[in-house]
Specification:
Elements (H helix, E strand, L loop, with lengths): L1 H5 L8 H15 L6 H8 L5 H24 L38
Helix pairs in contact: 2-3, 2-4
């Protein structure tokens, strides 16, 4: 998983996944560049419309929650929270916000 987190463009992953991650990056960071041609490029790799739709739903919700938390100054500490898969949420994503409090304490932007 670390190579994907480092750079999905060069990580040893399936081309469909690479295309989907690129599309999600465009959706999240450069939505003004998202158009039918960009989606067609991903469809051409074998990703289905349903997979794109589902990925967009997940990305939309994550982006909404993340931006809302930033706006409200909500902080979460991955080192202190317990996750069923590991000792902390950081076990799932090592770049998780490490300066946040599980009690959702208010603080500055993370």
């Amino acid at each position: 998983m670390q190579p994907v987190l480092d750079d999905y463009r060069t990580a040893p992953i399936d081309e469909k996944l690479r295309a989907m991650l690129g599309l999600l990056e465009t959706l999240t960071l450069h939505s003004e560049q998202l158009d039918a041609n960009r989606v067609r490029e991903v469809l051409d790799t074998g990703v289905t419309r349903e997979q794109i739709r589902d990925a967009f739903y997940v990305a939309f919700l994550f982006n909404t929650y993340d931006r809302l938390a930033d706006t409200l100054g909500i902080r979460w500490n991955a080192q202190q929270s317990v996750h069923p898969i590991g000792k902390s949420g950081a076990a799932l994503h090592p770049r998780a916000h490490s300066d946040c409090s599980p009690a959702l304490s208010r603080g500055g932007a993370h």
